[in-house]
Design brief:
With 258 residues, this protein is an alpha/beta fold. α2 packs across α11 and α6 packs parallel to α9.
C-alpha cells in the first residue's frame, strides 16, 4: 500500500480514506495481516526480474557488486527505495516522492516558480508522476504562450507519441530529463551501484526515456559524472513487480519467523 505506516496509522496523500491495520484485519476476519509500502514490495522483487525485462539506459558496469540498487518509479505518485543484496533489512523504503523538487536549469526554475505560487511545498511527485505530468504541461504551455489542449495524462502521452503537438513532446522530454536528474541525485546520495526504473509512467513514456534526455541529466553531476557513467540504469518492463515482491517479502519473513 502506498504511504508510510506509523504504528497502526497510514500516512498517505493519495487515498481519500483512513487506513488502520488492526481494523482491516478485524473487518476481513484475518488472523494476521501485515501491510508494507508498495515500493518496498517492488524493491524486494528486483533480484528476481528476468534479464529480458531489462532495457538499458546507461552504464558500463565495472566488475563488482550492483548493490545497493536504487529503485525509482513514477506512477500515481513517485516511489523510491534501496535494495541491498542481503541482510536482516534487505530493503530501505523511502518517501522520496515527498522530498522537495529541485530545479536544474532555467526552464525548470520557471516551472518551479509557477508551482510555488500554488503550493507551499512542491515535492518531487508534483511533477514526476502521472498527475505531475498534468501540472508540468500547463506550466510549459503558459511559458510558451500556448493554450493547453490535453486534460489527461493518457491524451497528453498519446499526442506526444503521435508527434502532433510540440508542447506535448516537450513535456515528455522535460519530464524525462527531470526524472534523470533526480535519479542521479539519489544515486549519488546513497552510493547506488545500479538503478532500476519501474512504475506505470516509465513504460508509457519509454520512447522518451530512451532518447537521451534522461541519461544526459542523470550524468550531469559534476565530478561525479565519471562514477555515474559506470552505474547501470535499467527500465524494467514488468507489470507485476509489486505482487512478486510481496511474495518474496512473505517468504523471507516466514522463514525468519520459523
Amino acid at each position: 500500500i502506498a504511504g508510510l505506516l506509523e504504528g497502526d496509522h497510514l500516512v498517505n496523500t493519495n487515498l481519500p480514506w483512513p487506513v488502520s491495520v488492526a481494523a482491516t484485519r478485524r473487518d476481513a476476519g484475518l488472523a494476521t495481516l501485515d501491510l508494507i509500502n508498495d515500493f518496498e514490495a517492488v524493491a524486494y522483487a528486483i533480484p528476481h526480474v528476468a534479464p529480458e525485462t531489462l532495457v538499458a539506459l546507461n552504464g558500463e558496469p565495472a566488475d563488482g557488486s550492483r548493490w545497493p540498487a536504487l529503485v525509482l518509479g513514477p506512477g500515481t505518485g513517485l516511489g523510491g527505495a534501496l535494495r541491498f543484496e542481503a541482510g536482516a533489512r534487505a530493503v530501505l523504503a523511502s518517501e522520496a516522492g515527498h522530498a522537495a523538487l529541485g530545479a536544474g536549469n532555467a526552464l525548470e526554475l520557471q516551472v518551479l516558480q509557477q508551482m510555488l505560487e500554488r503550493w507551499e511545498h512542491v515535492d518531487n511527485e508534483r511533477i514526476l508522476s502521472g498527475s505531475g505530468l498534468m501540472n508540468l504541461y500547463p506550466c510549459l504551455c503558459g511559458i510558451r504562450g500556448v493554450e493547453p489542449q490535453w486534460t489527461t495524462p493518457e491524451a497528453l502521452i498519446a499526442a506526444a507519441h503521435a508527434g502532433e503537438d510540440a508542447l506535448a513532446v516537450e513535456t515528455m522530454e522535460v519530464f524525462c530529463g527531470w526524472l534523470g536528474s533526480l535519479a542521479g541525485d539519489l544515486a549519488v546520495t546513497f552510493g547506488a551501484r545500479s538503478v532500476y526504473l519501474t512504475g506505470g509512467i516509465s513504460s508509457h513514456v519509454a520512447r522518451f526515456l530512451d532518447n537521451g534526455h534522461f541519461r544526459t541529466r542523470f550524468l550531469a553531476k559534476g565530478v561525479m559524472r565519471r562514477v555515474l557513467e559506470q552505474v547501470p540504469v535499467w527500465r524494467v518492463e514488468h507489470g507485476e513487480l509489486g505482487v512478486v515482491g510481496a511474495a518474496v517479502w512473505h517468504a523471507e519473513h516466514r522463514c525468519a519467523a520459523a
